[in-house]
Amino acid sequence: MAEDRVMQSLLLDFYGELLTDKQRECCELHFNEDLSLAEIAEQSGISRQGVWDNIRRGVAALEAIEEKTGLIRRFSETQKGLDELDDTVRALGSLPLGAEGEALAEKLRRQIRELRTRG
Amino acid sequence: MAEDRVMQSLLLDFYGELLTDKQRECCELHFNEDLSLAEIAEQSGISRQGVWDNIRRGVAALEAIEEKTGLIRRFSETQKGLDELDDTVRALGSLPLGAEGEALAEKLRRQIRELRTRG
User: Fold this and answer.
1) Of B68, B31, B65, nearest in space to B51 by CA
2) Most B CBs within 10 Å, among A21, A80, A89, to test the B interface
3) Which residues of A touch B119 (CB under 8 A)?
4) Nearest Cα residue to B97 out of A92, A41, A74, A56
5) Which of A23, A67, A73, A78 to mutate to test the interface with B (most CBs of B within 10 A)?
6) Exposed e or buried b for every residue in B16-51, given b needs 16+ CB within 10 A?
7) Is B63 exposed, middle or buried, given 0-12, 13-18 or 19+ CB atoms closer than 10 A?
8) Region B2-69: CATH code
9) Which CA distances in Å does A8 have to A83, B80, B98?
């Protein structure tokens, strides 16, 4: 379930703008803000059933897009590759590199960190 | 124009599966296989005007998806970050690192290369 939430956040982050406004709004409030269906219904002025329909259809649309494009899978593989790069830089950093070498190893770590958060 | 072609190939690579079959087929033959509208018309059995409409609508749909999601822009920034990482590893490789350090620097280069082609 926790993993589902991570995936739903990724789906919204990647493809949320391709949903209808109502679908995106309901999905974001539910998955990112953790509001209940009743709370979203009250806040958005649509019925609880309407909120549920928007979430169900929104998630189905997001999952269909990922199944077709595989871009989140590609992104996840890149993140995994950056983790592996980071491990290698750490191994390198444990060697005696001299001042210049250590500065470059530190620069590598910073560049990898930036790539990771940028995604 | 050459840059347009690169962008159109990226758009197809990322989002091509979200087009209709006809749109994707016409766009791929035109942009990736470099066939003329007349050649595509002959091969696919639709009119030259039909081919053009499929390409025009396909490209508009692909551009709209990128404008909404920005995923190709994100991907391009990652590629640029990997280029910068590669520069740093090259600078490191020019230092005397010893056998173990050189093996790790070589491993970094290989990992960056894999990340680049994987995208």
Assistant:
1) B31
2) A89
3) 74, 78
4) A92
5) A78
6) bebbeebbbbbbbbbbeeebebeebbeebebeeebb
7) middle
8) 1.10.10.10
9) 22, 28, 47
Q: What are the structural domain ranges in chain B?
A: 2-69, 74-118
Vertex A37, ends A34 and A41: CA angle to 5°? Answer: 115
Which tens digits make up the pLDDT trace of A40-77?
999 999 999 999 999 999 999 999 999 999 999 999 99
Query: Per residue in A36-53, is it b (16+ CB within 10 Å) or e — as a string?
Result: ebeebbeebebeeebbee
Pick A71's closest partner by Cβ from B71, B112, B118: B71
Kindly report the pTM of this predicted structure.
Answer: 0.87
**ipTM confidence score:** 0.85
pLDDT at A2 over 60: no
Rounded (10°) CA dihedral A21, A22, A27, A33: 90
pLDDT digits (tens, 9 = 90+) for B56-74: 999 999 999 999 999 999 9
Torsion sign over Cα A96, A107, A118, B102: negative
- Contact call for residues B19 and B62 (beta carbons, < 8 A): yes
Amino acid at A31: F
